[in-house]
Design goal:
Shape: globular
Structural class: mainly alpha
Order of helices and strands: EHHHHHHHHHHHHHEHHHHHHHHHHHHHH
CATH superfamily of the largest domain: Hypothetical protein af1432
Helix content: 55-70%
Radius of gyration: 23 Å
Distance between the termini: 33 Å
Number of strands: 2
CATH class of the largest domain: Mainly Alpha
CATH topology of the largest domain: Hypothetical protein af1432
CATH architecture of the largest domain: Orthogonal Bundle
Number of helices: 27
Number of domains: 3
Strand content: under 5%
Largest sheet: 2 strands, antiparallel
């Protein structure tokens, strides 16, 4: 691996994951970036600010996993379908247009009575829940951008990515010139890409003209209308990936490999926050896999941090389902490692990890996925990663079961060896690593949290409501609310997703 890697490639890869998490086709954010750069150039943007436009376009939705669990509950299970429905009307001021596009996907496929209840709840509480969801998205986006080393200017644009020129956006109603120019440019560019792809040039032009002065900065809208043909042509390139990487504004920053593990941990948290049941999963798999194979620890740690990136392509109604999955749902799950492998394979400096990552659900008897590989095709490192992933998943609670005790998880792995599904040496190495992992004694919790506040934090990070936490801890919901407010104040966050990232960064969930 080279000493440094292209920051543009790393963030372009993350943008592919956000495409999937928003229910959009791959390379949607890349095409948005090309339109945004064209708009910026027409507006005379240059220097550092042009670089801000570039990265805001790629990273606008890196907080999209923050409220996936809540959106899925609101939509009846399919958060991706709801996000896809919202995409073309996000900038619309017409309530009729919004409702006519979004309401048909609420509860789609559910029994009529259940669907009616979901629609009624959406009409009654949708605006409030949308505001809460956007706040969570923006908070997570800011936190991840900070960990990835982006400037305060980029983070500010991500924090107001869903605000509108007329002050009717979310979550805080920031308006007009108080919105950074990169955020205003990217808002228009993203909508233009979606509208053009779904309806053609006339639809995109008509929408921008109608929304100018409302959702859109009139100057940005005018720049698009004056050059719509050229700007829309930018989205039709043969390789949006290569075009975007080549178009990175000067000076083109390199990402030091000394910080690569930190960046990949941010990728891991982006994925694992998608469901309360998977918070911390990738971090713990990375720790376990690296400990199980010291001679290959660096590659295994990095592969483990990235191994579940494709999870964002699967609706939360599947990941959070308390019962058995249908065959159709399993088919969607089986695509998770495929998407991960394809995304990571785009990044030159990480390409050597892509096949290893794509094999983390393979089994020696050919019963795994997505390839159905057999013993001879699965290298030792992939066997370690698959075993570490299985062990960690079993010892973490899931919607359909409680966390298994370590002894029971070990017995399950040993049974898988006898059945010919897992490798005996890999299982022995992972179990040895799991049995000897020692954590330093904690003498004081971070941010001045109390023991009780840490208990509450762990439960809310796992998706517990205030009423559920109250029952589990034998206290009143009002007391739980008091603790949650204190936790948020001490941690400097405002949402469950923000609290989860805080807990992950301070290793508080185990």
């Amino acid at each position: 691996m080279p000493e440094n890697l292209r920051l543009a490639e790393l963030m372009a890869a993350l943008s592919l994951a956000t495409d999937l998490g928003m229910g959009q086709p791959l390379e949607q954010a890349l095409r948005t970036c090309l339109v945004a750069l064209g708009l910026a150039e027409r507006l005379g943007v240059a220097g550092e600010e042009l670089g801000e436009v570039y990265y805001v376009a790629l990273l606008r939705f890196i907080g999209c996993t923050a409220d996936a669990h809540e959106i899925a509950a609101m939509a009846g299970g399919d958060d991706l379908a709801l996000r896809a429905a919202v995409a073309p009307v996000m900038g619309s001021s017409s309530q009729r247009e919004f409702a006519g596009t979004v309401m048909p996907v609420i509860g789609r496929g559910r029994p009529p009575l259940q669907r009616a209840r979901l629609v009624a709840a959406m009409m009654r509480t949708g605006q409030r829940r949308a505001r809460e969801g956007v706040r969570a998205d923006c908070e997570l986006a800011e936190a991840l951008a900070s960990r990835l080393g982006f400037s305060a200017a980029v983070r500010r644009s991500l924090a107001v990515a869903f605000e509108q020129w007329n002050g009717k956006g979310l979550p805080d109603g920031v308006a007009g010139e108080d919105l950074p120019l990169p955020a205003r440019i990217v808002y228009v560019a993203r909508d233009v890409e979606v509208l053009h792809r779904l309806g053609g040039a006339d639809v995109a032009v008509t929408a921008v003209r109608r929304r100018s002065g409302e959702a859109y900065d009139p100057a940005v809208a005018a720049a698009f209308l004056a050059g719509s043909d050229e700007l829309l042509a930018r989205t039709q390139v043969e390789s949006p990936w290569q075009t975007v990487v080549d178009a990175e504004p000067e000076p083109r920053p390199w990402f030091p490999t000394a910080r690569l593990d930190d960046a990949l941990t941010a990728f891991a948290d982006f994925v694992d926050v998608k469901s309360p049941w998977t918070a911390g999963h990738s971090r713990e798999v990375a720790e376990l896999a690296a400990a199980a194979a010291p001679s290959d620890s660096a590659a295994l740690r990095q592969a483990a941090l990235l191994h579940d990136l494709g999870r964002v392509a699967v609706p939360n109604g599947i990941w959070d389902k308390p019962g058995r999955l249908t065959e159709g749902e399993w088919e969607r799950v089986r695509l998770e490692p495929y998407y991960t492998e394809r995304i990571i394979g785009r990044v030159g400096a990480l390409r050597h990890l892509s096949t290893l990552i794509g094999m983390h659900h393979e089994r020696l008897d050919g019963s795994g996925y997505h390839r159905g590989s057999g013993r001879a095709e699965i290298p030792a490192a992939a066997r370690i990663l698959a075993t570490a992933d299985a062990y960690q998943a079993m010892t973490q609670p899931r919607p359909h079961r409680a966390a298994l005790p370590a002894e029971q998880a070990a017995a399950e792995l040993e049974a898988a060896v006898r059945d010919g599904r897992l490798d005996a040496e890999a299982v022995a190495a992972v179990l040895a690593a799991a049995g000897h992992r020692a954590r330093p004694a904690i003498t004081a919790w971070p941010a001045g949290l109390s023991d009780r506040e840490v208990e509450v934090l762990r439960l809310i990070c796992r998706g517990g409501t205030k009423k559920e936490v109250a029952v589990l801890l034998g206290i009143s919901p009002r007391t739980v609310d008091h603790h949650v407010r204190h936790i948020y104040d001490k941690a400097g966050v405002h949402t469950r997703a923000g609290a989860t990232v805080f807990a992950l960064e301070h290793d508080l969930l185990r």
